[in-house]
Design goal:
With 668 residues, the protein is an alpha+beta fold. It is built from eleven helices and 37 strands.
Length: 668
């Protein structure tokens, strides 16, 4: 009994020690520096040993409320690939008033001759940049990084924008050993709580009493400008949200994910209303309708749409080319593309303004596409802007203007909506750049009303490959390939290859398919965006056919065979995002050498996914000494549900196995 009691006490003490483990800035241990790999994931290049956020409100009698965020992070770098995590980027918002970063301290720790060597981050190693009109960025990279280094930093952010709490990330692309999040909210602020991601998160909610002591200046009397400083205190209740956890796994990137950020575990707090003593309730909770109406009324959005004089003279001859609305849309889209180039900056608001962007020939996303909308309206076309959250920005969880970071154009003709983006050189009507295809966008009409529109393409992206192949009696192959690319595939092809010399493309094709030599390479409609782009070349090879005795062996689709299954995980956590429905069609015609017969060919199949999500057809036909092979993969959905992962994994397994089957010719 005594032995059992002692053992129980030891377990309790050890457990309590683990739970109560504290981290203090500057107190890094040799054990942390000696650790060679993360215990729960030996593949991790780095890990958060500790991640802490403390978020609370301060009150000043003169300045009012300030939102304070304290950041403390300690990170272990296991190898060179983890060195990227020794860089910190701090973004601050400004719009008249500005957020401020203070109290920055950062150290690098290494173990040398069994001694801990510390190196502080110097002030001149912190770089400040005015990223945009509304964004200031501080960036630093820790010095003296080595395999096994530990880095840590802490700082505070003071924000006058107390109505908005940034999303609190609870998971990263590297694991977290210990997480400690605490948010304290005075009773005057009423927030809605949102959790996102696939990781189970337990948020503890509690209440606390708090006293705020503050000072302020009071005018002595109404006839005097003299003031005196007085102090006061207020007792209030405080709501506390706490998240503490250990050994949080890394957010694993999987193939065919739109944006891994959409699946990151995170806590979002949306201000619903404020109710201060002696004041009326002020509502903050918005609808998408009110958010979009507010954006539309902005001087750097709606008023920019109203400006027309700067382009009227140049646009007149464009409009004179045709009165047909569809033709006008194409003419105006082409004109804007030629007139203003994208500077690489996203934004739903203009930066320098449409007039200056037009004059200088360069602008951000909003300047280009708001200009496009204005010109379309001038041409008598029912056009409106569409607010978008790009794929790298994620899908907004609740109505907020920060949910959008991009704007495109939409025209309504015959009760159909056509989407346009003049920032992309190779875009077409309803063929948008991949960055914008993120679920839905919000179309904003001139009167401020708005509605959701689908961004996912209705038309399939199409790849068509036709091959003609002749095989001689020695197994030598001569062939010709013609591939055409349509819709999103055409846009993707042009972005990759339109500005590259043919020689570079030939080299790439030969490197991808080491068995072939290419000749007579040609691309048709390389920049003609309204036509399919077509690539043609002749090829020859001594290595595509395996000859063993009196037999020849080769894959039916040769170097266009799909030989790997992209879905290898036993279990998938996230939906499969192809970006667009697609058709991948291959037709191969083979001339069999004289003196040979077919001994074995793959069996024809036709298989489908549930709910008509996709089909695959593989067909082999013979006609004299000609063999015709058809392979067609058609996916009818852009986003495939994770609940059906086992089906699509097996579906692709069958496709790969069929592509790997051999055709066998026998000499007679």
């Amino acid at each position: 009994m005594k032995k059992i009691l002692i053992t129980t006490l030891v377990v309790i003490l050890v457990t309590n020690k683990l739970i109560a483990q504290n981290f203090y800035f500057g107190d890094v241990s040799k054990e942390e520096l000696r650790e060679q790999y993360y215990p729960n994931d030996s593949t991790a290049n780095a890990a958060y040993l500790y991640k802490e956020r403390k978020i609370y409100y301060m009150y000043d009698g003169e300045r009012g409320w300030t939102l304070v965020t304290e950041v403390y992070e300690r990170i272990k770098l296991y190898d060179k690939e983890g060195f990227d995590y020794a860089t910190e980027v701090i973004s601050l918002f400004k719009d008249g008033s500005s957020e401020k970063m203070t109290s920055l301290k950062a150290n690098t720790y290494n173990l040398e001759n069994n001694k801990i060597v510390k190196e502080k981050l110097a002030k001149n190693q912190v770089f400040k940049e005015n990223k945009t009109k509304n964004t200031i960025v501080y960036k630093f990279t820790m010095p003296n990084l080595k395999k096994g280094t530990v880095v840590e930093w802490k700082y505070k952010i003071f924000s006058p924008y107390y109505s908005y709490i940034d999303e609190i990330e609870l998971q990263h692309k590297i694991p977290i050993k210990q997480l400690n999040i605490k948010v304290k909210i005075p009773e005057y602020f009423k927030f809605k709580r949102h959790l996102k991601g696939y990781l189970p998160v337990h948020v503890v909610q509690s209440m606390n009493n708090r006293t705020i002591q503050f000072s302020y200046r009071r005018q002595v009397n109404s006839r005097s400008i003299k003031t005196v400083r007085e102090s006061n205190k207020v007792d209030l209740r405080e709501l506390i949200y706490t998240v503490t956890d250990k050994n949080i796994p890394a957010l694993v990137e999987e193939d065919y994910i739109s944006n891994i950020e959409n699946y990151r575990a995170a806590l979002s707090l949306e201000l619903s209303y404020t109710e201060f003593p002696g004041s009326r309730v002020k509502n903050y909770s918005s609808t998408w309708e009110s958010v979009c109406n507010k954006i539309n009324k902005s001087t750097i959005f709606g008023l920019e749409l109203a400006k027309k004089t700067y382009f009227k003279e140049d646009l007149s001859p464009i409009l004179a080319m045709s009165s047909d609305k569809l033709k006008r849309i194409n003419f105006i889209l082409k004109f804007v593309k030629s007139k203003v180039k994208w500077n690489g900056i996203y934004g739903k608001y203009t930066d320098v303004g449409v007039k200056k962007a037009y004059k200088e020939g360069v602008g951000n996303i909003a300047e280009i596409n708001l200009m496009l909308v204005a010109m379309l309206r001038e041409g008598g076309i029912n056009a409106n802007p569409v607010l978008v959250s790009t794929r790298n920005h994620g899908v907004p969880l609740f109505p907020t203007s920060k949910g959008f970071n991009y704007v495109i154009a939409a025209v309504e003709i015959n009760e159909k909506i056509i989407l346009l983006d003049a920032s992309e050189e190779y875009s077409m009507p309803n063929v948008l750049p991949y960055r914008t295809i993120n679920w839905r966008g919000r179309l904003v009409k001139e009167d401020g009303t708005s509605l959701w529109v689908d961004l996912i393409p209705a038309k399939h992206a199409v790849d068509n490959i036709n091959m003609n192949i002749s095989i001689d009696g020695e197994g030598y192959v001569d062939g010709m390939q013609r591939s055409s690319h349509i819709n999103m595939e055409a846009l993707s092809y042009r972005k990759k290859y339109a500005k590259i010399k043919d020689e570079a493309i030939i080299e790439k094709r030969e490197n991808e398919n080491e068995a072939i030599e290419i000749a007579d390479f040609k691309i048709i409609n390389k920049t003609e965006v309204y036509k399919p782009v077509t690539e043609m070349f002749k090829f020859s090879s001594e290595d595509l056919i395996e000859t063993v005795g009196d037999r020849m062996y080769f894959k039916p689709l040769f170097f266009n065979s799909q030989t790997k299954n992209p879905f290898k995980l036993d279990k998938r956590e996230y939906p499969i995002d192809f970006g667009t429905p697609f058709i991948d069609k291959k037709m191969v015609r083979i001339t069999i050498p004289e003196g040979y017969i077919i001994e074995s060919i793959p069996e024809s199949i036709a298989i489908g996914l549930p709910n008509n999500f996709g089909i695959y057809i593989f067909n082999v036909k013979m006609q004299g000494n000609k063999m015709m092979i058809l392979s067609k993969l058609q996916m009818n959905t852009a986003v495939y549900p994770v609940l059906n992962y086992d089906e699509i994994k097996e579906f692709y397994k069958i496709i790969v196995n069929k592509n790997l089957e051999q055709i066998v010719l026998k000499k007679v």
